[in-house]
Amino acid sequence: MTCTVFVHSDCARHVTPPGHPERAERLAAVEKGLAGLAVTRRDCPMGMEADVLRCYPARYLDRVRAAIPDEGWTQLDGDTFLSPGSFDAAMRAVGGICAAVDAVVTGETKTAFVAGRPPGHHAERETAMGFCLFGTVAIGAKRALDHHGLGRVAIVDFDVHHGNGTQDLLWDEGRCLFVSSHQMPLYPGTGRADERGAHGQMLNVPLRAGSGGKSMRDVYERVVFPVLSAWKPELLLISAGFDAHADDPLAGLEWQADDYRWLTDRLCDFAGGRVVSTLEGGYDLDALAASVAAHVGVLEERGR
Ligand SMILES: [Zn+2]
Fold this sequence. Notes:
- The longest helix is centred in the first third of the chain and has 20 residues, at about 85-105.
- By secondary structure, the protein is α/β, with parallel strands linked by helices.
- The chain is globular, with a radius of gyration of 17 Å.
- Helices cover about 35% and strands about 15% of the residues.
- The strands form two sheets. The chain has an eight-stranded parallel beta sheet, with helices on both faces. Strands 3-4 form a two-stranded antiparallel sheet.
- The chain starts with a strand and ends with a helix.
- Zinc ion (ZN) binds near residues 243 and 280.
């Protein structure tokens, strides 16, 4: 076995206005990072509405679909745009994570990475925001729980921004541990340590700007890994944003590609190594390519 990477050309059809950091070129940078890795590649199937509806009311799905423009852009908030290809792109990202969960849960592959966009972890139950339309990682967790009948899953979100959408969608979900490490203060402003979820199943780990990779490793060792270990997840999902990298223009945690290598390797020690990772942020193209190479390189090694 190896790591299975899910991609689809539709994900490049979500087009954002010139100068927007969350741009289609990010997928080319991801491909650069994947070059030379011995991964199995699969197309993301189109996502199914039933999977979205585990997390969202039907009126939200209808509202996003109805807002898709025939040309140009529709703006949903200060930084979230829709282009004619955005709905299909977002549904491929949903289909990708659901297919990845299926493949890992059934043992077809041990690890998987979904290189989809738009990202998902800021989209709340009734609100697209922060470049995100549907909370893909939460949708993947619900598929593992409700479709496959797993009893315990965990999500680790190491994007530099708090995964407020994932937190909102899974606030009442007692079968899913949600861990988010993020720079604070920073967009979207949530993610204080006292935000714990309805069942105490959420762990928010705010990090200081400029704190760096050594501090990250220390806090994961001291705070995160013991909680993950006690949770005993059957599947681990990762919201893999690479915007904590030192070269990223949107934040300042000062991590390096090697920090992603270390963190990914340690995360593969949980859930029997059954890991599904999905792309979130990461806006410096060279840093994104290097970080994806490090992250998926470990998923490939550990997936053998
Ligand atoms: Zn981010």
